[in-house]
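Aggregate trends can hide what the representation actually does to any particular protein. This step matters because it turns folding into a mapping between discrete strings. For completeness, the protein is quoted in full, as a sequence line and a line of structure tokens:
=====
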Amino acid sequence: MSVRARLGLGFGTVVALLAAVAVTSIVQLSGFNHDVEALATVRLVQLVTVGRPPTHWA
């Protein structure tokens, strides 16, 4: 194999690995975004509701 071919193969491998890491990162961030939205819309509302004093006193 010539030096040019080996350099091309090595560069192609690095680019492929970089693309795989980028795709994995995007998928993980998407899942993280889903979890944060769930915390902000559901859990925070529940926490605020629990922390409020009752509207009527028995």
Observations:
- Residues 3-51 form the longest helix (49 residues).
- Helices lie at 3-51.
